[in-house]
């Protein structure tokens, strides 16, 4: 993995995590938390969404994809915390 690819992953993760935090909880989780939530959300979306026929391309598509996965992740975490 190149340095440029790593930086893109970090930026996409940070933006997606921040967006998910704004939508689900109303606030972000700090830089590191946003990156972690965004990257894990991207993996989750990459696993779930292609089965539904959703495919996005480009950097904006990657951010949207990761944000959808991060929102799903945060909702699942919220459900687990309630139990």
Gist of the model:
By secondary structure, this protein is mainly α. It has one domain (3-82). The protein is 80% helix and 0% strand.
Cα Rg:
12 Å
Secondary structural class: mainly alpha
Helix-residue proportion: over 70%
The pLDDT mean sits at 83
Topology pattern, helix = H, strand = E: HHH
Shape: globular
User: What is the percentage of strand-forming residues?
Assistant: under 5%
Number of helices: 3
How many E strands? 0
Contiguous uncertain segments of 5+ residues? none
Number of structural domains: 1
The description of the largest β-sheet is:
none
Distance between the termini: 39 Å
Task: List the keywords.
globular; mainly alpha; 80% helix; 83 residues
Describe the SSE topology.
Layout: H1 3-24, H2 30-48, H3 58-82
Helix pairs in contact: 1-2, 1-3, 2-3
Walk me through this protein's architecture.
Helices cover 80% and strands 0% of the residues. The chain has 83 residues and is mainly α. The protein has one domain. Helix 1 crosses helix 2, helix 1 packs across helix 3 and helix 2 crosses helix 3. The longest helix is centred in the last third of the chain and has 25 residues. The protein is globular, with a radius of gyration of 12 Å. The termini are far apart. The model has no long low-confidence stretch (mean pLDDT 83).
């Amino acid at each position: 993995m190149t340095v440029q690819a790593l930086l893109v992953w970090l930026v996409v993760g940070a933006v997606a995590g921040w967006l998910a935090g704004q939508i689900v909880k109303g606030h972000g989780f700090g830089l590191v938390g946003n990156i972690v939530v965004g990257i894990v959300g991207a993996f989750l979306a990459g696993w779930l969404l292609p089965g539904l026929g959703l495919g996005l391309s480009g950097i904006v598509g990657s951010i949207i994809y990761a944000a959808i996965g991060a929102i799903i992740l945060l909702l699942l975490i919220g459900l687990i915390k309630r139990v």
